[in-house]
Design goal:
- The chain is of the alpha/beta class.
- It has a single domain, classed as NAD(P)-binding Rossmann-like Domain (Rossmann fold).
- It has helices at residues 17-28, 40-49, 64-78, 101-128, 150-170, 187-192, 195-203, 213-224; strands at residues 8-12, 32-37, 55-58, 83-86, 132-137, 174-181, 235-238.
- It has a seven-stranded parallel beta sheet with strand order 3-2-1-4-5-6-7, sandwiched between helices.
- Helix 1 crosses helix 8 (213-224), helix 3 (64-78) packs parallel to helix 4 (101-128) and helix 4 (101-128) packs parallel to helix 5 (150-170).
- It is globular, with a radius of gyration of 17 Å.
């Protein structure tokens, strides 16, 4: 991709799944990458796997004080920021009537509050320099209804609207995009679904399979690059065609 060489990139939730694939892709593009994750062992593992990382930061994105400290560390590593991949997130599969107030708060705190805290700190730095790109992790769950994920769905719908508002306010210096995957084969997904459930899901996706984390990482790299300098303010769906005909409602 054009324009990613030596870019300073911060990837949240970068120790596993889509985040880890994104780390690998941006390093391939020649970027200077810092990983932020609340999993200390995961940070150690990703640093071992990629010794060319600019640094790792152990922090919980839902903790506003921890986020402020994390950006102090980022400034020490890189002296600023060009790209934020706002990827950290959690989900808990359960019936709407069984969601506890604590679970609701937990999911919203990470998936929506955390995106806001990270984006605001990133934008402060980008506006003080020559601009930048913020890519928030949305989901098709934020665009269509999915049973058993009311809290997750609400958080991702919030991310999409936050993205639109940020794009309007931060333009023209900062581009803001939401990437909205459908089903992706990550450790989080595998923990929630049995092999039989996976087969049922795959049967309703026109391409017949879950996405690979590297495919989402490739989209992140494209959107962050100089290839699409006119793109901002919208969600991008990458779901194998799942929602093209309303199949998610089955």
């Amino acid at each position: 991709m054009r324009g990613l060489q030596n870019k300073r990139v911060l990837i949240t939730g970068g120790a596993s799944g889509i985040g880890a694939a994104t780390v690998a892709r941006f390093l391939e593009e020649g970027a200077r990458v810092v990983v932020l994750d609340r999993d200390e062992a995961g940070c150690q593992n990703i640093a071992t796997a990629h010794p060319d990382l600019a640094g790792t930061i152990v922090a919980d994105v839902s903790d506003v004080t921890a986020v402020a400290h994390a950006f102090t560390e980022l400034d020490r590593f890189c002296g600023g920021l060009d790209v934020l991949i706002n990827n950290a997130g959690i989900s808990i599969r359960h019936n709407f009537m069984e969601i506890t107030p604590q679970e609701w708060q937990q999911v919203l705190s990470v998936n929506l509050n955390g995106v806001f805290y990270m984006a605001q700190e990133a934008a402060r730095r980008m506006l003080a320099q020559s601009g930048g790109v913020i890519i928030n992790m949305g989901s098709t769950n934020g665009l269509v209804g999915h049973p058993y994920y009311a809290d997750y769905n609400a958080s991702k719908a919030g991310v999409i609207e936050l993205t639109r508002s940020m794009a309007l306010e931060l333009a023209p210096a900062v581009r803001v995009v939401a990437v909205c995957p459908g089903y992706v084969l990550t450790p989080m997904q595998e923990a929630e679904y049995t092999p039989e459930m996976m087969q049922v899901v795959n049967s309703k996706i026109p391409l017949g399979r879950h996405a690979k984390p590297a495919e989402i990482a490739a989209l992140f790299a494209f959107l962050a690059s100089d290839e699409v300098p006119y793109f901002t303010g919208h969600p991008i769906i990458i779901d194998g065609g799942e929602t093209a005909g309303g199949l998610a409602s089955r």
